[in-house]
Structure formats: C-alpha cells, structure tokens
Amino acid sequence: MPVKINYSKKSINKKSSNLILFCNDKFNISSLKKDLTNNEFVYVNDLLKSSDLKKNLLVFELNSKKKIILISIKKDLKTSDIENLGAELYVRVNYGKNSEYFLSTDSVIGNNQNFVGHFLHGFKLKSYEFNKYKTKKKSRVVSINIFGNRNKPTINNQLKFRAIEEGTFYARDLVSEPGNILHPDEYAKRLNTLKKDGLKINVYDQKKLKKLGMNALLGVGMGSIRGSYLVTMEWNGAKNNSKPLAFVGKGVTFDTGGYSLKPARFMEDMTYDMAGSAAVVGLMKSLALRKAKINAVGVVGLVENMVSGVAQRPGDIVKSYSGKTIEVLNTDAEGRLVLADALTFTEKKFKPKFIVDLATLTGAIIVCLGSEYAGLFSNDDKLSKELMDAGIKVEEKLWRMPLHKNYDKLMNSKNADVQNINYVGGAGSTTAAQFLQRFILNKTPWAHLDIAGMAFSKYGGALNSGGATGFGVRLLNQLIEENHE
Fold first, then answer.
1. One of 124, 126, 290, 336 is an active-site residue; which one?
2. How many CB atoms are closer than 10 A to CB 286?
3. Is-catalytic flag, 92?
4. What pTM was estimated for this model as a whole?
5. CA-CA distance, 194 to 469, in Å (whole number)?
6. Which domains are seen in the chain, by residue range?
C-alpha cells in the first residue's frame, strides 16, 4: 500500500485526528496529557488496566472517527528493534479503515536521538508491495503526519533513510519481475537508466565479452536467444583517488538448470536467481542517492540459463577470463561460472580495497542455515567481522562458514584446471566458495555471501511482507557507513 510521511505542520483536529503516541514499557501515559483531552486521558487510563501490557502496541477506538495507538518503548532497544516496531505499526494500520495518522515526536522517551527515523524506516520497508501486474490496485494511501518539536530526524537522516529505502525497493522490484520481462537485454537497459542518479555505467555486450575472453560467463547464456552482459556501475563520492570498494552480483535472470535440468516444481521461483545482482544494483543506487563519501563499483553478470540446441553441455571445457580452464560437469552450477569471470575482471580492472560478492549460489546453504542467516565465506578476518557486525545491526544476519585448502581437491578436474561441481558429495556451499576463491588472483580481501535462503521469502519477515526481500542492500550500506565513510 502506498505510504506518505509528511513533515509539514498540518493542523490536528482534536475530535477526529488519529494519534500515534509513545510511552514507557509499563504504558504509563502521564506524560501524554497535553496530547489528549481530560476525558480521553481518563478513558484510555481505565482501558489500560484491563489491557495486555506485554504487547508492544495497543490500539484504542475512542469513537467512530478517532483512534489512539500507544507504542511502548522498552529499555535498551536496538535499532533493529525500533525498525521492527515501525513495521508492526504498518501491519496494524494496513488492515484498518483509517488512512491518516498524526505521530508525536515529543512523546518519544529515552536517549535514542534517531528513534523516529528508524521507526519510520521500518514502517516504510514493511509497506512494500509488488502489484505492477495487478489490474485492480488498492487506491488507499496511508499518511503519517509528523508533529512535535523534539526527536525529529534531521534532513540528512531523512535523505539517508529515503535513499536506502529506494535502493531496497529497486532491488525488490528487480527480483519480483517475471523472467519474460526482466531478461538480460531488458536488465541491461534498465541499468543504463541509473546514469540519471549519478552513476557511471558501462555495458559489455557479447561481442565485447568474447573479445575480453569471458567464456565462463558467456557459456552460461549460450542456450538463450537473449544476450549476455557484464555491467559496471561506478560511484565516485570520495574527494581523493582512493581505491574503490567493489561489489559483485550474480544476475541469472532465469535458471532452468540448462541440460542439468531442474525439477518442474518451484522452477517458477528461479526468477530470483538474479537477487545477488539486484542487491548490488540497489546498493549502488542508494549510495548515489545519499551522496556517499566513498568510491565504489558494482559489477553484475547478466545471463539466462536455458536449454536449446546450442546450449552448454555437461562435460564442456571453457577458458575463463583469468586464463584458467573450467570443466562444466553440471550446467546447473552456473552462477559460479558467471562470478568467476566477474570477480577476476573486477580485481584486475578496478584494483579495489576489497570485493564482496552476493549470489543465490547453492541450495546447500538453505539446508545448512535455512532462512535466518546468509552464508559468509572469506579470505579476510577483518572484512568478515565488519560484515557480521553490520548484519547484526540491520538484522540481515551472516554466519561464517569454512574455507580450507583441503577442499580444493574436491574441485580439481582431471581434464581442466578446475571443475564446477563437487561430485564426491558434501560441503556443497563451501566447495562452491572454494571454486570462486580460485578466481581472486592477487590476494585482494574478498567475501562471498551465499544468499539463497535470504533473497526471497514465501511468508514474509519482520521488514518485508513476502516475496523479494532486497537482502544485502541495507547490510552493505551499514558496512560502508560504519567502517569506510
């Protein structure tokens, strides 16, 4: 449902304006007397005596026109808890009849100066819907009018939250698009439009990729009538020529598995096999919108993995951009082929401070971690810690998984330098990451995030209502803001 947050001073009608007020964890409302009439104060106080005070949020219907929503602020709330409170409010107002509310910033208690900013951020993130292809759309808009003299988010914080929301929503939109609409040709066109946000965009089409020798990436897209692409997005927000931070994403817009064909059941969900690239795109968009004071580059490989008379076969051998040869034993282990070329290209061309790649890479990571954590694999302890700490703060959690030279033997090929799958069995996510690590040639600090269990949610989560989550956009924004700006 569309949401509007208004900071303009709109006058409150004492008889009919719906109020959102904050109080302490015991629902003590003595500090709210100025916001309520005497009769309202007495009435709500009486109702509180028989209410469940263990809840975070209580709703009181004063009459047919006016509603008061009380939200308790418990002690030592983390920013993610505050955002979850905002999301909880959205769930309550989404199903009500009222569409306009007034939120008092003066009623906020505690020392968190950015409480309202995080609260509204959670509210907005939860409000996302993908209804582009619905012929009948909801016409209702929920408006939150902000009033009060204290605890208002600064203009800069408002802009920052809005930029992150727009980046997250853009990523969710990309993941939500069906495969017949967002094929690689269309995806590359959309990325070109991000120039208007201040990003420098370079699109490498098949002809350019062939000339560069990106045969691992090109091999994946051979069976599709659509093109294959590598797109770079550069943001230069630092005043110096410091090394950029690099983010690489897997963009398989639809994955049939190729000749190693996937089962028909749930294949329709394979539109989200480009969620890693969507997170990188959403991040780059948000960095540009909030004018982040860093240099960053996003690199995405865009392909469609289809079956045809010219599609890649199991047993094919390709020469990657790095010069290493790869035996393709399973055409459904295609994402690592795309990333292999993209990672080496990113390291060689941009010489970044570090590289973080994101991919819906393995089903094994879902078996291991479910939909609570993304898998983190890295050659660098400092980068790993920064990522894990950032993930905890925004509730996009990571769990570090092992990399070890002993896993390499599982990926060694008899016929080429490396094979693209471990047929011995076990350690599916680790051996995939071990494969990727071979294409980091100059010991650049690198982290691989396997987000297969986090990119799409059937049932929804704290800050999304089901479908594409945009996982990674907020995580990487937090990583940058906290450690590199």
1. 336
2. 28
3. no
4. 0.96
5. 21
6. 3-153 (3.40.220.10), 160-483 (3.40.630.10)
